[in-house]
Amino acid sequence: MKTLIRASALAIGMAAMLGAGAARADAPALKSVRNGAATISYRAQGQGPLVLLIASTGRGTEEFGQLAERLAERGYRVLRPEPRGIGASQGPMEEVSFHDFANDFAAVIRNEGGKAILAGHAYGNWIARTIASDHPELARGVVLIAAGAKAWPKELSEAITMINDPASTREQRLQGLRLAFFAKGSDPAPWLQGWHPAVTKSQRAARKLTNRDDWWAGGTVPMLDLQGGADPFRPASSRDELKQQFGDRVSVKVIADASHALPAEKPIETADAIADWADTLAK
């Protein structure tokens, strides 16, 4: 009997060790790559075709954890590079343009090998489109996650400025998050953290230094315009803006009950929409 008990305990212990090993194997690996004077840190997980996730204004990619895990489950290798000024990513922050940021992330793709689906959240969609325009050999497709319309109310940009301001009260910032980022019924509190004002400043300056015609088309690859149904940056009247301009290159998908923080509010739905669309593309 004692022998059986010891054997059972050993089997359970071995199973636990194997389970822990599997969990570690599936966990994101932290890697880095150089692009000139910049060093870009990124997480990589999963196996399969590449998907590169790019964060919104002044934010990092740690909050894409659930989204990345789901994409990995769907058979993709997910790359989450941090922009300059967040985590271990560093490099010049002044007198830089979208092209500099695109080169940073292009270096990540080259480090991994092959082409990638370029999925950018909000501000990040501009960088995704810049990569596809500047480095067409690295792009399989572009996903615009909660991309704004061609024009949006000034108060939404002002809300982002206020949220980034350390002088703003907690209640003011929550009000701004509810206005600009989160649908009714979603909890905006987690986004009280994770803002990097210096990064926001650098990214906004980069927009002014970049000619929109350089990146707007996002190269010539297929494009998924993934929208939140309650996103004030993307009212219903603007649903087909890009499809009308670029035709059959563009697929439009709307996720209900989500706002501008779409991948945070609906990470599984966002991941499945990306994977479903990416599954249709040529390898």
Model description:
The chain is of the alpha/beta class. It has a single domain, classed as 3-Layer(aba) Sandwich (Rossmann fold), CATH 3.40.50.1820. The protein contains ten helices and eight strands. Mean pLDDT is 92; it is low at 1-25. Keywords: Hydrolase, Signal. Residues 62-273 form the AB hydrolase-1 domain. One of its GO terms (cellular component) is membrane. This is Alpha/beta hydrolase.
Brief digest:
With 283 residues, the chain is of the alpha/beta class.
The CATH topology corresponds to Rossmann fold
| First-to-last CA distance | 56 Å
Mean pLDDT: 92
Count of DSSP helices?
Answer: 10
Helix content: 40-55%
Q: What share of the residues does DSSP label as strand, in percent?
A: 15-25%
Q: How many extended strands? A: 8
Task: Please tell me what the overall shape is.
Answer: globular
Radius of gyration, in angstroms, nearest whole number: 20 Å
CATH superfamily heading = Alpha/Beta hydrolase fold, catalytic domain
CATH class: Alpha Beta
Largest sheet geometry:
8 strands, mixed
Total discrete domains = 1
What structural category do the secondary elements indicate?
Answer: alpha/beta
Spatial order of the strands forming the largest sheet = 1-2-4-3-5-6-7-8
Order of helices and strands: HEEEHEHEHEHHHEHEHH
Oligomer: single chain
Low-confidence stretches: 1-25
CATH architecture label name: 3-Layer(aba) Sandwich
